[in-house]
């Protein structure tokens, strides 16, 4: 499984897209879910919230008869949201968690902080590990 699989899964979630559009107060021309960092021209307060998906290095697996039977790929999912939208940030974090659980992932780390480069935005980080079969 790759970060592109996670992207496809999150990108097809209308509940997530609709939520982000409601928080932002407008629909963007493209769904603001990215593998890696979006282009600099996109990274503006008016486009928040948006999501970035990145892989976490590693290749954990369980084996039987010299074959992988369970893999544990890990991904970091960050999102940026205007920090005055505290309740919405909690709701978005819960929605992403619920979606990722339904896709076979469990969260093992989370962190929230003001983005040092964009002080009007809160960056919410969650790290997930896949719990499914290879």
From TrEMBL:
It comes from the Bacteria. This is Uncharacterized protein. The lineage of its organism: Bacteria, Bacillati, Bacillota, Bacilli, Lactobacillales.
């Amino acid at each position: 499984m790759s970060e592109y699989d996670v992207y496809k899964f999150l990108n097809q979630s209308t509940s997530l897209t609709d939520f982000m559009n409601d928080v932002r107060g407008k629909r963007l021309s493209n769904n603001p879910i990215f593998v890696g960092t979006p282009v600099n021209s996109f990274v503006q307060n008016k486009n928040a919230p948006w999501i970035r998906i990145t892989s976490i290095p590693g290749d954990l697996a369980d084996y039987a008869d010299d074959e992988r039977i369970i893999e544990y790929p890990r991904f970091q999912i960050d999102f940026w949201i205007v920090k005055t939208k505290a309740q919405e940030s909690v709701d978005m974090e819960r929605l992403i968690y619920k979606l990722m659980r339904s896709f076979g992932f469990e969260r093992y780390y989370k962190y929230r902080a003001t983005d040092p480069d964009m002080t009007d935005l809160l960056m919410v980080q969650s790290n997930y590990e896949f719990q499914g079969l290879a």
